[in-house]
Amino acid sequence: MPIDPSTAIGAELPAASFSWDPSDVQLYHLALGAGASPLADTELRYLEDVAPQVLPTFATVAATFHATEAPRVSFPGVEIDLAKIVHGSQEVTVTRPLPASGKATTTTRIAEVWDKGKAAVIVQESTTVDVDGNELWQSRSSIFARGEGGFGGERGPSESRELPDRAPDLEVKTTTLPQQALLYRMCGDRNPLHSDPAFAAAAGFPRPILHGLCTYGIVCKSVVDAALGGDAARVKGFRARFAGVVFPGETLRIRIWQADGYLIVDASVVDRDNSPALSDVVLTLA
Length: 286
Known about the structure:
There is one protein chain. The chain is built from 6 helices and 12 strands. By secondary structure, the chain is α+β, with helices and mostly antiparallel strands. The chain is globular and about 55 Å long. GO terms for molecular function: (3S)-3-hydroxyacyl-CoA dehydrogenase (NAD+) activity; 17-beta-hydroxysteroid dehydrogenase (NAD+) activity; enoyl-CoA hydratase activity.
């Protein structure tokens, strides 16, 4: 079915109610590589049994953490083959540090649909509240659908943040695990693009790729650990554009520039001549 922007834009998706507990938080952090230094206090605070600190990027998986089936891209006015989809961008803004357990409801609307010619971009915005109606976080994300453009819609903006014209204040390298994608699947994203070699080949990749949101979480954690003393409560928001693929086992080069109230970040893949992984990355300080 071709994309119908007149139907899609502004459409509200069914509300999702869900809950999470410290074990979910621990597994999420382990799926990002937490605990690689098992004697370090900065690592163990992510893995405490009763009240682990929670990275704000947990918000990207909380609602679907216990899903066991591959996701579907089926919205009002939008019906797309999963093999054509990659994550375009992600932004999360938290009202306060996320609790280690809770119950919440997320409401989502399709905010924008852009026609890029050979591809389409679908932008979603959501708000998550606790059982008392207090806001926990907001998120904005986009998906990039290859081969789904050309429906006559607006092309949309093309914005990119320039990196500072100076050496980074900090630079770290984080190596992903060969089984990183298989571990991250346990956080509810069962897209076979990240586990099935045949599916990945049909989608045009030589082997399964790492989830974009896994890279997103790994980079956020690396920045928190390197620049914020491992204190996730200092993060107000985290946004990034997915600029390239990462294969499990590759090493990320993460450069960090300090600014007034936020950090500018760039992430690239060391193994492939620093090819882009995440760009337009900004961590907003609480």
